[in-house]
Amino acid sequence: MNCLNRSHGGGSVAAIIGLLSVGLASGCADRALYLGSSGGESGGETRGPEERPEPLEPERPEPDRPTPRGCGDGELDIDELCLEDAIELDAGIDPCAIVAADIDRDGHVDLAVPNSDAFTEPYPNVANVLYGTGDGRVSSPYAYKAGGNLPVAIAAGAVDFAPGLELVVVNYEVHEVTLLRNAGKRDFHAGVPSKVGQTPQGVAAGDLNNDGLDDVVVTNGDSGDLTVLLSTGDGLVDLGVYSLGALPVTPVIADINRDGVADVLVTNMSSGDISVLVGLGGGALLDAGRVPVGEGPFGLAVADLDDDGRPDVVVANEYDNTLGILRGRGDGGFNRHSALEVGWGPRRLALADMNGDGALDIAVAHGSSEDVWVLLGDGELRFTHDSTYSVGALPSGIVAADLNEDGMPDLAVANQYGNSVSLILSNP
What is this structure's pTM? Predict the structure, then answer.
């Protein structure tokens, strides 16, 4: 198993070595679109569902998905993409986000989703964990009370000194974050909730102050800002708030200027850009401006796509059916590289080397067409649509992780309206 062990020596633990599991901090922007968020900056008008731009269904041929000759022989061959059809599993009500990590420290990757239902009283406000067995199977959901109302986002990290990983759950309706503290033996205790901004949307966990503990950032849709919560080893404390664009959704913590201090990037759906906040140390951030990326940017991933040592960015633009690719300069800035046409309503994406050629590939979940596209990379920021996999209703989160421990990444997709998780397993 190639999981990153929990360590208090620095670095996020909610990652898979060599896989770049993206979507670890995904949330439900639909809360803001359909439950009354203004989605704007101060003074902005409310935009209801009728005003949401309707993406046009692209009329592009979908490639066949041939199975390479070597698939299923148990040998890992370069350039061989061997993913099987999706298996759909129960994941509780309204799982609109997903995280992959070895939560119980048994050496196998687990999955966790937030669960809620705005039309059911009392609300089933829980986080469900599907514990992995290492052979591509997961347990039935273990439900843990998440506090508050309408959990919409989730992250995993080493937030305190407990033996396993903690879960951080964003509760949309009460504007707060609940830290589920790992008590061992697959048991969690909810800590004191932390208040954040208006209609929180997304969450990410990572070490902002290099103390070996993961801190937390939360995007707030209505207030258009980012709340920073620092870990004390015994809980979370509010460090401050930073202004963002209109309807911020997905945060990602990464060192984009290569100075050894974590930075934060955020997609802003209504303003069509990403916010760049550079880490100053101690958990403080500096607003470095915003970069236009496309219409309705939702999902976000950061990785070195062209092997030049500089982090690049991929953004899923839900309203114009594209992926925006930004080439990193290595100093915290980005150059617009390309806009890649994809399927209908791209929401989330994951990066991993899915065919063993050493170049990162993209898996993108489309909420409108209810499928996942795999686009193979050439290591030069060029990507080609290779195959399509049907999943459940309204896929809203996707992660890449080695669930069956065959040395190749698998995909797990949270289907918000399908009340399920789809597993797309590798079979080299």
Answer: 0.87
